[in-house]
Amino acid sequence: MSTLTLMPSGKTLDFPEGQSLLQAILDAGEALVSQCGGQARCGACHVFVTAGRKGVSKLTPAENAKLDSLVGVGSKSRLACQIRSLGTEPVTVELLGALSG
Ligand code: FES
């Protein structure tokens, strides 16, 4: 079990091994749009993983390809729908809101 902190709200919640980051964010009541049903196609779930990057699953080829097509992508960029918790360390994610996609 590890924890997930969401910024800018500062909410902290449990982030058990195997859980989808997108689902955890939605369960926390945060507004994050999924337009493709979590298929790494829409890019609407773009977030920055600002801490604990070793606590989440690795970038997949599909995720990498989609990130390449988005504006505002940086070294901390991930697609929330493609991330699963490894349960090994606390993770902090910055939600990008209107900046996403
Ligand atoms: S929900 Fe569409 S890319 Fe993540």
TrEMBL record:
Keyword terms: 2Fe-2S, Iron, Iron-sulfur, Metal-binding
* Record-annotated 2Fe-2S ferredoxin-type domain positions: 2-99
Among SUPFAM superfamilies, the record links this protein to: 2Fe-2S ferredoxin-like (SSF54292)
Q: Does the keyword Iron-sulfur apply?
A: yes
Instruction: Read off the Pfam families from this record.
Output: Fer2
Q: Which InterPro entries match?
A: 2Fe-2S_ferredoxin-like_sf, 2Fe-2S_ferredoxin-type, Adrenodoxin-like, Beta-grasp_dom_sf
Name what cofactor the protein needs.
[2Fe-2S] cluster
Q: Which family does it belong to?
A: Belongs to the adrenodoxin/putidaredoxin family.
Q: What is this protein called?
A: 2Fe-2S iron-sulfur cluster-binding protein
